[in-house]
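Hi team,

Filling in the usual template for the complex we talked about on Friday. All components are listed, including any nucleic acid strands or ligand strings, so the model treats them as one assembly.

SUBMITTER: L.P.
PURPOSE: interface mapping
COMPONENTS: six
RESIDUES: 340
SEQUENCES:
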Amino acid sequence: MSEVGHNSGINSETAARLKQYVERVERLTEEKDGIAEDIRDVYSEAKSAGFNTKIIRKQVARRKMDAQKRIEEDELLELYEGVFA
Amino acid sequence: MSEVGHNSGINSETAARLKQYVERVERLTEEKDGIAEDIRDVYSEAKSAGFNTKIIRKQVARRKMDAQKRIEEDELLELYEGVFA
Amino acid sequence: MSEVGHNSGINSETAARLKQYVERVERLTEEKDGIAEDIRDVYSEAKSAGFNTKIIRKQVARRKMDAQKRIEEDELLELYEGVFA
Amino acid sequence: MSEVGHNSGINSETAARLKQYVERVERLTEEKDGIAEDIRDVYSEAKSAGFNTKIIRKQVARRKMDAQKRIEEDELLELYEGVFA
DNA sequence: AACGCATAAGTAAGAC
DNA sequence: GTCTTACTTATGCGTT
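RESULT (copied from the run log):
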């Protein structure tokens, strides 16, 4: 067998690069999960302070939806610009 | 109507604190979404480099599962210990 | 107004078919919920028999994970095969 | 060591009963997943027939909520009966 | 541009 | 009764 195959049929350089990508994703995912935990902590804290977290979630969702509407409008404006440019 | 009620039936201080929580969540969510985008970028880059992103995803999933499995087994052992403690 | 619109803007045949789908989903959901209840009953029974349900849950999770891991690995292999096909 | 311990420190009869529970849960879970798949199939079919599945889901959710309201009312009635009985 | 997949949010149940 | 954990639903993303 040639050099190819030392790592399940892939040459070792390719395998190494694959590993790089996997590890980068893993590192970023870890960060992301960390932030998700932070968010949970904020809700916990709010709860401890006597707030109903459901309401906060609704509020967040609502504002996000509004933001979405704004984005849609922006895109529409951009579209118009293209037409009149 | 008393001062209470200026903000839908809750006093202004409470409203302010609520706003704080909402904004903290929003800020963290923004960060989180940013990282999610970074992850997508890594996959895009890998794809451009000629890799099959499905393979990378599977590798990531597989490794995550290995880690999870170990945790799962440790917890099971611990649980069994608890039975005989 | 034409015949269309008697049911909020859709013709009655379409409405009837829609209703069919909704009812099929509802019937199946009912079955599903029934089984979910059965599962809960099994855990209750186990608990009454003196078992730590957490252990049973962990066992179930562990076995499921084993199965999933095997599937995951098979898919990965298949994917690799595809690369060299 | 006594007979206890042949199976990770649990006597074999207990282990056997544990296994029974695990398997019952697994069997029921399999059934449940099968039905979940059936539900997905119904949605797929509806989609193929030109329906917007999101709307069907909303419809199903809405009817369920109505049912929930009915249950709440029933419980309230029951409560009253208790008071006046 | 539509489909399936994967993650994420929200909801509900069970443990302490 | 509170709290955490598990499940279910829903949305959004990548792919074909």
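MY TAKE: Chain D has two helices and no strands. Chains D and A do not touch (no CB pair under 8 Å).

Thanks, L.
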